[in-house]
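Summary for the funding panel

The consortium committed to producing paired sequence-structure records for every protein in the target list. Below we show the first two records in order, beginning with the earlier of the two.
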Amino acid sequence: MTTTALRSTLQALARAVAATNTANGWSDGFTTAQIPERIALIHSEVSEASRERGRARRARELGDVQIRTLHLCELIAPDLLGELLWEPCLPERRPPLPVRIWLRATRPWQDLQLHGQISATLETYRKADAGRVNVLILHQLLDLIERVNALLLAELPARTTPTELILEINAANAGRGHRHGGLRC
């Protein structure tokens, strides 16, 4: 497949991820009261990425972060993601080599920033006015997607895009079956 054939909008990626996760039982009975639980799952994916030292394995875990985040966006407000974006697609241009090296060399700091960003999202859930909480959380999740994408671009091999990785992981998840072997959400 060519990159242009895989260049999906974030909204299309979120729909594809949500469809797979719904088929696997990860959307059953979702309510906004479950947002903290879903944020915790994103947190756990970042922790898994933090433990990976190889670039390919770390990229895969960061791809899982993107999938969990996109799914939560769709659960909170289906089809709203596209209306909140300046850039409808994930950027695919890798940063210059010195930037990629710096991002890799500062992984612990980068991971700490991700954890802080996720914790801030949870605080927004806890403290925001009920009428605005969903939109505020969506904006924070979009910021997280942007930051994780930058890290992905530093970890992925040349000529591989974050979109391709997300679609690859989503296809693998589609074949894993209901609730991925009975794991709790």
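The next record, for a separate protein in the list, is shown here:
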Amino acid sequence: MPLDQRFKGVGAALITPFDQQNEIDYAGLKRLIDLVSEGGSDYLVVQGTTGESPTVSSEEKREILAFTIKNNYKSLPIVYGIGGNDTKSVLDCIRDTDLTGVDAILSVCPYYNKPTQDGIIAHFNAIADASPVPVLLYNVPGRTVINMKADTIVKLSAHPNIIGIKDAGGSIEQSMELASRVPDDFLLLSGDDNLVTTMISVGWHGVISVIANAFPKEFGELTWHALEGRFKEAARLQLAFLEFDTLLYIESNPVGIKKCLEIKGICSSDVRLPLLRASQELGEKLEKAMIREGFI
């Protein structure tokens, strides 16, 4: 099979805007979809971790997905997050979700109960067997505690319905090993914005990005410079985002990127507990960085 080109480039991992009553701000979500679409994002990722999926109800998730599909005026491919650490619950969610208009699901490595690598393989094979759309794996050991090892990912890449992985493990060595071992049609997508240029240089295909929420044009240029071999131009933009990327995570994701969107007038920086809105200090640092780098 050829590489699925729909998911090459930049997928914007959409935040979920909230109003002051902590309800979904659909007007803000519409502005966000328009911003990332007009900015050149290649596809939309709905209800990943950046969308605060742990504190968004099942009903709200369905409503957000339906709203995004309805307001996807550029008809960009849509990836929808369905994952968890109870395999049966994930399978039930896949069965009960109308995936019309969804091009793939993104499913996180099971967290908290710390399965073995064989348990991870069994979990994802069951999901891939049940899903009516292709599956993207999501490795994020900083949140799940366990790392999906390269051997595990290579074994899962043999499943015909598992088409790629978003990896936020931060290991260049594992990234290089995967690039050398997975089939040519298996998508390798960075989950670390600050490693995009490096990972593409060893054969990766793009990124599912937090930064693309607020700066889709700049981050799209960075990614496609790298994909098209213009590494000097990509490196210049990558380094411009270096300090900025660090600031985004000081008070946890998506607190920082929501503050950037508030500064840009897209939506408020409200988050749901146990997260808190960005501190005044962080907000000032982000705004200074945005001005210094010419992002506003």
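Regarding this second record: The first helix runs from residue 26 to 38. The mean pLDDT is 97.
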